[in-house]
Structures are given as structure tokens and as C-alpha cells.
Amino acid sequence: MNIFVDRTLCDNHGQCAISAPDVFRMNTEGILEYDEVVDDALHNDVEDAIDVCPVQAIFILNEG
Amino acid sequence: MIVVVGGSLGGLRAAEQLRARGYSGPLRVVGDETHLPYNRPPLSKAILAADFSATDAHEQLAFRQRSSVADVDWSLGVRVVASDLANQTVQLDTGEVLAYDGLVVATGLRARRLYISSPTGSRFVVRTLDDALALRARLVPGTRVVVVGAGFIGCEVAATATTLGCDVTVIEGATGPMERSLGRELSQSMRSFLLSRGVRFSSGRRVVGLLTAAANQCGGVTLDDGTELGADLIVEAIGSVPNTDWLAGNDLDLSDGVLCDERMRVAGAAHVVAVGDVARFTDSVLGGLPRRVEHWATAGDTAKVAAATLLADLAGVPAPAATAILPSFWTDLFELRLCGVGTTRAATSVQILEGDLHEPQHGLAVGYLRDDALVAVVTVGLASNRQLHYRTLVIAALV
């Protein structure tokens, strides 16, 4: 599946990096880095990350 | 049918988690607001400072819902007025009675009001979108604002209103800003910071009366030492009250929210669970007395546990062990973000881990210790990677 983070919304809270650390990471400046193409096995983690994002900036673009 | 009472974040997350755990039966969510679930934290910050129309504001804030809950039956603008848990029914204000197999209590909190009945005009709270939009319309430059209460909401409103050019005084009462959550040391640090940004404080005083301006409009407050503080409007930010009236008469412990076990089962009722800040439950890591947790993340965290428990109980199988819920919160005051992880209130002492209490704007981390063990960390003005670092320290100390 493909992940998209809307950088105009993202506020670098870092909650996604707790829920799905294999996909989302905060770099040494505290800025989000993430994988745009993700194995479907991580689907639940990504859904959790979407849920905990305080600004709802994370989207799954396509599944399967 | 599973009925979820409460149509905000907790109700939505409960519905989603029930679906995620395989429940495919009918789901009905009853909520007293007319809006679909939306995000509340921006109400005291960005929404007060933005010029969206009411419709656009809701569009900005509405939660994207998982596709699994597309078939949920939403009853919005409808209040549950009573319940009979022995007979598994709830009664709506429309007169309708709903029979349920499982019930989720997700009714959250409402703003506590001052016990002074008049005047009624120019008095605001910030709990709902409609509350925030009504207040926003009045926050024009030069407006004199008295904020009663110095918790998170009071401080956030004070910071935002100051940014908008209002003249703001916070009545902080017996304790300092956010002191219950941050402890004395960091509270005083944040007080100095807010003062430096133009927020005024009135300390150690209670509001005992309201001044009347024209035609039933509040014109300020009278404090318990007789001081009168004039204002064009006041914001009542004195905490919140759990919405449990509809559960009365079922022999439950409703003394502060609804008492639950550590798996979010409502104590004394079958097939009833609770989620979010209305639920009083025991910290599965630190133990101690059951308490409510009024943080945004709690809705999602408790929904996972509650959904798993309810479905197991309905199926007559043992409920899975409750996953430990680590409280976390954040607030934004001017350009400073505070992030907390762990249970600060369990601490017996604090330790500065990074930075200087006198200069929180340059980055600060405060550790909260109980018997020398780290139970929480609050960071101020630090990047999220530092916050994540401290989070791992708290987790390491807890296990």
C-alpha cells in the first residue's frame, strides 16, 4: 500500500512513530520521515498511526 | 445490536475497534451533538484564531472514519436520557427505547460552569465546536477577557486570545497554571513564560460574583477579596463534569465518571464497557485508586481494550489481558509545545533532565519520580524525537 502524509497538516507530533515505527520515524531535527510504499502486513500499524495523529495528516492512498 | 452512547472521538473509536475485532452486527451510535465526530483539541487553539466558516471549521476538524464503520447508524442531535442495564435498554429523548446486546458508554464530559446563575450573556466555555465558534466571534483586538481557571483549556484560550490582541487575565485560584498535571515547579515555570507573553494572572482568589454590564451581559467578575475585574467577556475553564446522569438508577459507582475494571467493564453491569474520559479505571502499571484520564489519546487507547472485552464477554469467552495504557498529552501555548508521557500525578519529586526551568522556551525536560523511579516526563519546546527518547525511558522504568 502507499502512504501519504500531508505536510501542510503534519505538525511533527511523532505519535505515528510510536504506533508504526517501521513506517514512520522522527529524525534528529524532530521532523517526520516515512516510507511511501509499505508492506500490507503493516496495515494495522498504519491504521493505528492514522488514528493517533492529532492532526489527521496520514492517508493510505491505495490498498492491496 | 451494540449501542454506543456518545458520538465523539471515544464513540467513533469504539465503533471502529468493534469492527476491527470482527463484530459485523448492527451498530448504533447516539450522540447529542448534531455534528459527526470531530477533533476537539484545536477548539481552544487554531479554531479560535482562524476565520473558517462554521461549515468549513467542521470539515477541517471532522475525523476521517474507517470504511468499516460506513454502515454504522448515527443518531445525532439525540440524547440518551435513561438506561435500564438489567433489562439491557436505553431510552432516548425522542421517546424511543433501544434494546442492546452490548453497550458502550462514551458520553465524555461537559464543561463545568460557575455556580452563579446570572447574568447569562458574555459567558463562554470551550467544549464543543459551537462553543468555540461563538467565542471566536468575540475575540477581537482590545477585548478584555477574564479566563476563570488555569488548567490546559484556560491557558490555551488565554494564549490564543492574547495572540489575537485581547487583554487577558487568568484567575488561577489556589494552584498555578496546569499545576495538577505539571506539578509545582513546571507550573511556575510556565506561569513566568505566559506572563512574559502578556497574559496576566490573578492568584489565590476565587470568583464569588459576576458583574453585570448592559442587559444580562456579564461585565467581569468579583473575587473573594472584594476585587472587581471588569471584562467584556469571561471564559469559564474550571474543569469538566462526567456525563453519567443517564446511567443513574442502575446501582453503579458514578461518584466520578463510571467505575470500570482494568478491562474497561463497567463495574456492576453485564455487557457494558466504557471508553474515554468518562471511564474511571485502575492504572494497570502503577496500580493505585481508579481514576479518570482526561487526555485525547485515552479515547483511542481505552476503545481498543473495551472493544476486545465486550466482544469476548458477548461470546462468553475469556477477555484478553488488558494492554497497559500509558497516558500521554500535549498542549500548545504560543509557540511552545508541551508533551507529557506517563502519570505525573503519581510523582513524589521532580528532576530537571534537560534545560532550565527559568527558560522553558529554550527547551526543557522534566522528569517525575516516585520513589526514585521515573513515572513520567514532560518536555517543553523540544522536538518530537527528544520526546520519543524520554518516552522510551519512562517505559523502560515502568517494566
Automatic annotation (TrEMBL), chain A:
Taxonomic source organism: Cryobacterium glaciale
The question of whether Chaperone is a record keyword is answered with no
Write out the function statement from the record.
Answer: Ferredoxins are iron-sulfur proteins that transfer electrons in a wide variety of metabolic reactions.
Which Gene3D superfamilies does this one have? 3.30.70.20
Question: Needs which cofactor?
Answer: [3Fe-4S] cluster
| GO-annotated molecular function | 3 iron, 4 sulfur cluster binding; electron transfer activity; iron ion binding
- UniProt name for this protein: Ferredoxin
Q: Which PANTHER family match?
A: FERREDOXIN (PTHR36923)
Q: Which SUPFAM superfamilies match?
A: 4Fe-4S ferredoxins (SSF54862)
InterPro entries recorded: 3Fe4S_ferredoxin (IPR001080), Fe-S_cluster_ET (IPR051269)
- Which terms are listed as keywords in the entry? 3Fe-4S, Electron transport, Iron, Iron-sulfur, Metal-binding, Transport
Automatic annotation (TrEMBL), chain B:
GO terms assigned for molecular function: oxidoreductase activity, acting on NAD(P)H
Keyword Flavoprotein listed? The answer is yes
Q: Which InterPro entries does its entry note?
A: FAD-oxidoreductase/Apoptosis, FAD/NAD-bd_sf, FAD/NAD-binding_dom, FAD/NAD-linked_Rdtase_dimer_sf
Keywords for the protein's UniProt record, in alphabetical order: FAD, Flavoprotein, Oxidoreductase
User: What are the names of the required cofactors?
Assistant: FAD
Record Pfam families: Pyr_redox_2 (PF07992)
Q: Which domain of life is it from?
A: Bacteria
Q: Name one GO cellular component term.
A: cytoplasm
Signal peptide, first to last residue: none
- What sequence ranges are listed for the domain FAD/NAD(P)-binding? 2-302
List, alphabetically, the PANTHER family matched. Answer: APOPTOSIS-INDUCING FACTOR 1, RIESKE DOMAIN-CONTAINING PROTEIN-RELATED
What is this protein's name?
FAD-dependent oxidoreductase
Q: Which organism is it from?
A: Cryobacterium glaciale
